[in-house]
Design brief:
oxidoreductase activity, acting on paired donors, with incorporation or reduction of molecular oxygen (chains A, B), homodimer, two-stranded antiparallel ribbon, flavoprotein (chains A, B), 14 helices, 2 domains, about 450 residues, FMN (chains A, B), monooxygenase activity (chains A, B), TIM Barrel, NTA_MOA (chains A, B), binds flavin mononucleotide
Chain lengths: ~450, ~450
């Protein structure tokens, strides 16, 4: 009997008109539907037809100042995912929630509710937020410092998991005759009092089907990777090349044993932006057409923001002003992304304009133009050479980029024996091949049972 | 031509197994489905079949210590209402959100998202929260003081409406050819800096169909009524008798001109808990059966909590210990409700046990047992004598209490010419007969247009 090949997992990163920054100008895109729930229903159903493990909504709590040139992000994740739960059956529903600008009780409860509504399909992309566009909607001081954000994230997660663990599975008695609805000894407050949060508990919802939502993380800095190793079950990451992907993969997997976790307990999902053509030439033409729609004003803003320096006064066709750029240590927003952009520009010798174009399709994630077969081969290579356990699919434009992937690439993956031909699990965690969430050390308290 | 009779509005107060505290023990109830979305879908569709203006979810952010004797409240409102939006077409969807334990940016955005998802059917029950069961999940000090909560509510509402007003209707240009997605001069930050919140804005969602969700309020204290007069378009209220209802109605309507508002700009909806029988005797039997299922432990806890004194050491069949009870001024939780309970007990000369029973069906709201015709007559009387513009229907047990109402009482209301026979509007606000939300004074700022 042939040895079964390693199976890949697919998450759809669902973002209004797609991941190329000019996607909204693509002839087939529908930017006027960026806040239309029925538009997302259709895309979610396509992903489900493609047997994706999950779909994912990113999030930020502010309007980017680039709205003149860039389509809206979309609807709010908890409301949209709950709506999508009703319109789909099997696909996982991963929402982003920031630990910097939320209360753990609210977030724990909303994920529990979403998991109950969806029958065990909720996932949480745990982020610490990345900019003042968000921060200034909550406080005057702007974004808290990077390491403080991660300390807060750890405490936040302790509280959330403590709340989810607070109910024993058999706490609900529901005996109409005796009049006992629940056994209060099986529902414990957490009595949490930490540096950032005071939360008594217990949660006002019973255990959700998955016990915890699938825990997802996407930090790329040292602190971010340490956090992922502690808590994440799936990791989104931006890797611009196979080599970079392998290095990240090896690095993250090596961190797991320190937390008593096996390598297969975390699925690493690099972002992947495929431009699909029936021939290689057609794919290249499609890529070129997208490039011609990109706008310098937007690209410059995006790069300047990420690299921490206003680039608009430098010659577009000259090199990056390396000497003037801040060091990674000084970057407070996305340290990991800043480093990757510098690596790309240096190793490929890119001008400012070239870096802009190179990152326009998916902000630096792995991107390629090719035929369905070439794309499936590249995915298989990342899988087999230890750069990925699957992919965070970032179609350059929607709906076509997703339709093409599902209709043309998925069969190629299946033909290679590396992708499912039917769902076998029911819950999101089962799709990723696991049965239980990670063990996250409980907060101090939790002795006193609940008493009226 | 006969003069058209005043039309009544109906809101379904959707609460797990129903409003009688023993409803979960009722033979026809399904307490094991209190967190099952499909259970709520079915009820929402029944209410829609009954042409209700809206359904409403109350909320608190904590588990009551009475969980031993009392069914769970249900799912989280934003997630559940978004799910229900997908399963219904016309009925309004009102969710509760507290201004004491939330950030205005998050709440403004979630309601905008819900309104977009539901096609203009969102409503916001603005509450300030009522107890430490909630408060201790956010802070050590417990519930902030009553008047501070309302000051915070006013600022919160200023911020939220400011965010909703920040986008002009035609801000989205979406011109693929020129590459202009939006006109940044038509999207303004609010630059809010107040006593409680700092919020830059703008919102990252375009105007919702209704511009604001329908604004609903339920405070009964002086401060609460002042707030309702300023901002509410619908008011939920607990009134135990026609007389009390008339007094409240007159009081609230008289406050409106001070804010430049006409009496018809606010719909007053007293809670109403009908126990429906095909004969009066059958209705009384049903009521009696429910009474027999109530539990003293729970009822005593509930009364003690509301009145601010542990009643468990007093004889159940004796009077309330009036001399020992705290004054309304000392009550920090629900001043209005405490006063109503004392009024009821005094005016009807009730013992502790009698007050418990009298308030078991709906916590003091107007309740009656009768035939469909008697119930419709009572509703018509409240409508015509100036005690109500409609009702907040609180079925004692579900699903039967709602089925009976829709199948038997609704036709009686229609036969009396006081209730619609088909939906005419599309949005929730249209159901309540209005076209625009109230004008709420804008926060200080809002000059600088958004710039990249
Ligand atoms: C695929 C992907 C998706 C992300 N989605 C979000 C998001 O929705 N919201 C957010 O605030 N940050 C998001 N991030 C950013 C990271 O979660 C992380 O907060 C950020 O990179 C800063 O952490 P770092 O300095 O450790 O990299 C995303 C990153 C990646 C790679
Ligand atoms: C029908 C009705 C529903 C209510 N729903 C809620 C609720 O869901 N959550 C909440 O915290 N308070 C709720 N309340 C309480 C009021 O909103 C208000 O906060 C409370 O009565 C305290 O204000 P007061 O002292 O002005 O009455 C409700 C009140 C009524 C009459």
């Amino acid at each position: 009997m042939e040895r079964a090949r390693k199976q890949l997992h697919l998450n759809l990163f669902l973002l209004s008109t797609g991941h190329h920054e000019a996607s909204w100008r693509h002839p087939g895109s529908a930017p006027e539907r960026a806040v239309d729930v029925h538009y997302y229903v259709k895309l979610a159903r396509t992903a489900e037809r493609g047997l994706f493990d999950s779909l994912f909504l990113s999030d930020a709590y502010g309007l980017p100042p680039t709205i003149k040139y860039k389509v809206l992000h979309g609807l709010e994740p908890f409301t949209l995912l709950s709506a999508l739960a009703m319109a789909t059956e099997r696909i996982g529903l991963i929402g982003t929630a920031s630990t910097t600008f939320n209360e753990p009780y609210h977030i724990a409860r909303k994920f529990a509710s979403l998991d109950l509504i969806s029958g065990g399909r909720a996932g949480w992309n745990i982020v610490t937020s990345t900019g003042n566009t968000t921060a200034l909607n909550f406080r005057e001081e702007g974004l808290p410092e990077h390491s403080e954000r991660y300390r807060r994230a750890e405490e936040f997660l302790q509280v959330a998991t403590g709340l989810w663990d607070g109910w024993e599975r058999d706490a609900l008695v529901i005996d109409k005759d005796s009049g006992v609805y629940a056994d209060p000894d099986k529902i414990r407050p957490i009595l949490h009092k930490g540096a950032y949060y005071t939360v008594r508990g217990p949660l006002n919802l019973p255990p959700m089907p998955q016990r915890y939502p699938l825990l997802v993380q996407a930090g790329a800095s040292e602190t971010g990777k340490a956090f992922a190793a502690l808590a994440a079950e799936a990791v989104f990451t931006a890797q611009h090349s196979l080599e970079a992907g392998k290095a990240f993969y090896a690095d993250l997997k090596a961190r797991l044993p320190r937390h008593g976790r096996a390598p297969e307990e975390v699925s690493i999902l690099p972002g992947f932006c495929p431009i699909i053509g029936d021939t290689a030439a057609e794919a290249r033409d499609k890529e070129q057409a997208l490039h011609e729609l990109t706008q310098t004003e937007y690209g410059l803003y995006r790069l300047s923001n990420l690299l921490g320096l206003d680039l608009s006064t430098y010659p577009l066709d000259g090199p990056l002003p390396y000497a003037e750029l801040p060091e990674t240590a000084q970057i407070n927003s996305q340290k990991g992304r800043q480093q990757m952009f510098l690596d790309m520009a240096r190793s490929e010798g890119l001008s400012i304009r070239q870096l802009m174009m190179r990152t326009a399709s998916s902000r630096g994630h792995f991107s390629m133009a090719g035929t369905p077969g070439q794309i499936a081969d590249a995915m298989a290579q990342w899988l087999e050479e230890g750069a990925a356990d699957g992919f965070n699919l970032m179609p350059p434009y929607l709906p076509e980029g997703l339709d093409d992937f599902v209709d043309k690439v998925v069969p190629e993956l299946q033909a290679r024996g590396i992708y499912r031909t039917a769902y076998s699990g029911r819950t999101l965690r089962e799709h990723y091949g696991r049965t239980a969430p990670p063990r996250i050390a409980a907060p101090a308290a939790a002795q006193a049972p609940l008493r009226a």
